[in-house]
Design a protein that fits this description.
Blueprint lengths: L2 H17 L5 H4 L30 H9 L17 E5 L5 E4 L3 E2 L7 E2 L7 E6 L6 E6 L5 E6 L9 E4 L4 E5 L10
Antiparallel strand pairs: 1-2, 1-9, 3-4, 4-8, 5-6, 6-7, 7-8
EC number: 1.8.4.12
Organism: Nitrosomonas communis
Keywords: Oxidoreductase, Signal
Length: 180
Amino acid sequence: MKRRTWLKGLAALITLPFISSYPRELAAGQQKSTKFKIDPITVTPLNKPHKAWRSLLSPEAYQVLFEEDTEPPESSPLNQEYRGGTYICAACYLPLFDSKHKYDSGTGWPSFTQPISGHIGTKRDFMLIWPRTEYHCARCEGHQGHVFNDGPPPRGERWCNNGLALRFIPKEEALPELRG
């Protein structure tokens, strides 16, 4: 049994009393009120099953995006990417972050101070026992990462993203067409 699977099972048992009241913000197209400034979703979600993305992504990217896995810290080349451009969802190509909001958080994952307005959906995550705010691409619902309140001023937010869930498009290149 994988250690992560065992930890998820343990966390599920501990959080069982909370699950019946656990909202499904993404499924409803709405977002739970949090201490973070989350803008209303402005894109139309795709009606595509997660398994349909499997043939379009590497096995590792699929695990991160649609099985909510986490890549190892310091494993993404995007940690060292500081050119001007746009970070898009690796599955559906929806723009999620502008490079001007990227910073080195020292965590080992690409981090941003804020997403592109209306392109992120959130939900509560209890997988590590204490609640966290998990965020997803608002279009394909691909898991991106978690947002924390220990980022730099003025917003104080750290949008900690899996590098496998993103693609970087330099400013001088055109953004690819959305896929889905």
